[in-house]
Specification:
The protein contains 14 helices and nine strands. By secondary structure, the protein is α/β, with parallel strands linked by helices. It folds into two domains: 161 residues, Rossmann fold (3-Layer(aba) Sandwich); 122 residues, N-(1-d-carboxylethyl)-l-norvaline Dehydrogenase, domain 2. The strands form two sheets. A six-stranded parallel beta sheet has the order 3-2-1-4-5-6, with helices on both faces. A three-stranded mixed beta sheet has the order 7-8-9. Helix 1 links the parallel strand 1 and strand 2. The structure holds NADPH dihydro-nicotinamide-adenine-dinucleotide phosphate (NDP).
Length: 296
Amino acid sequence: MTTVAFLGLGAIGTPMARHLAARDLGLRVWNRTAAKAAAFAAAHGATHAATPRAAAAGADVIITCFPVSGDVAALLDGPDGLLAGLAAGATLVDCTSGDPATSQRIAAQCAARGVRFLDCPVSGGVAGAEKGELTVMVGGDAATLEAVRPVLEVFGKRIVHCGAIGAGDAVKAVNNALLAIHLWSAAEGLVALRQAGVAPEVALDVINASSGRSNASMNLFPERVLTRAFPRTFRLALLDKDIGIAAQVAREQKVAAPLLQLTADLFRAAHVAMGEEADHVEVVKYVEQLAGARIG
Ligand code: NDP
């Protein structure tokens, strides 16, 4: 039997772990705020591990899902750290939307212990995680991916091998940069149209039947902006981080990417203004403030 550990019971990690708990995988969970892991373990029949080391000990597949790669790196060392518990032959699957350079360093540390590593960021949001229908972008060795694919399929519908270690992180960052660009540009456009006398519902009706449509225009604006509901599912702080990684990837590859950099700068300012807990779609409120007008 494959034994799985899951560390990082945040907004997306919790529903992912819930699917794993429903399988016969001997799931053990660890979370920085221990009460969350204890409550999860009690509710879903998992084992609450007191330390990252205890979570990793004896596990074949160890899944991490934290805000940034640096959080994973920080959990590796020390007497209670992950590396102290990881056995040779185990695989560390990092579902953090991380950065390629840090993932490469973590992979090297793991390799020195005979532990395999894959960067496996996910997309599909909390709703996709709840349905077990995430897309998983994988960087690393193809044979390692095949060995852990059955575990990834517990929460992932589409598992895509993107390339070497860091490739999953890079694809995820660019995907989210596109999300950010769509959100921001649709917000500017809809504010301008509203001022020109066009109702946002009418504008979206046209755009969503035309070439300007995106997930933002088709789903996020109708469900979250026009309703002014702005549910908190994915923090703006995390989207800011993702665009920063995309811009960094472009710089590292010496590729001119002025729009990625501009978007990174705009979202950094929005993140600072809106705070740590704001949802990513609340960037629309920031665009409205800059414009001095509202969409709806
Ligand atoms: P959250 O902010 O909801 O949760 C973060 C988790 O990491 C919590 O369990 C938190 O613990 C823990 N954590 C935070 N900082 C540290 C630290 N320094 N050391 C140890 N644990 C820490 O994030 P999400 O679940 O939303 O996101 C996790 C990752 O998934 C991010 O990389 C994000 O970009 C990505 N992602 C998120 C999506 C979403 O829709 N939410 C969609 C796709 C990807 P505690 O409970 O103690 O605060």
